[in-house]
Amino acid sequence: MKTKKSIIFIASLLLCIIAMFCLNTKIVYAETTNTNEIVVIGVGEINFAPDMATISFGIVSNGESVEECQKQNENKLSSLSQALKEYGVEDEDIITKNYNVTQKYDYANGAQLGYQATYYIDVKTNDLDNLGQLVSRVLDNGANAFYNIEFGINDYNDAYNQALLLALQNAQNKAQVLTGQDNLIIKNIKELEYCYMPQAKLQMSYNGMDMFSGNITISASIQVTFEK
Length: 228
What we know:
The protein has two domains: about 35-50 and about 155-225, Protein of unknown function (DUF541), domain 1 (Translation Initiation Factor IF3); about 55-150, Protein of unknown function (DUF541), domain 2 (Alpha-Beta Plaits), CATH 3.30.70. A four-stranded antiparallel sheet has the order 3-4-2-5. Helix 2 runs antiparallel to helix 3 (about 130-140). By secondary structure, the protein is α+β, with helices and mostly antiparallel strands. The chain has helices at about 1-30, 65-85, 130-140, 155-180; strands spanning about 35-50, 50-65, 95-105, 110-125, 145-150, 185-195, 200-205, 210-215, 215-225.
């Protein structure tokens, strides 16, 4: 009988210890959860009229040898650089991005036809009013491949900082609406991403190319932790 009572006592004691352990675990978990914080995503967006543009084009030459292609491209590039300087484009605004040489084949007959060499070049300008004239000058003086025109802004960092401030204001407004409180304290800000979306419209006409640039949209996204 005493043995049976001892077993019952020990079992009861173990159950009490297990219950106390589980209770303490729940208490610790609740203490590590901060219910006085709210995390929101703020987005800021701002539009700018572009004040610069980058013209991307190529100088392509074909020949029986690599040396012949290179010589042709060098002559075309020299002529183009001189024409752009006369137009008012500075040397630092003429950028060779890449140089590529490929072999040309007649795959039907299995014969090599020679080589093709290409300079990939960017020309930057702030003169958007005469952009069509600049494109025409590029194509008339050595460039024989036109790829793209990208509009942009010179002071990008300042524009993005303005978008960040709008994102913070947006986050604060969201947090106030969700909590109904105006005196929220910022505990942490995490920058998530930015988006840069240049837009442009190009219209071909009988006397050249007319450019109509749209707005440039810059947006910023942040994650903000507030303490209520």
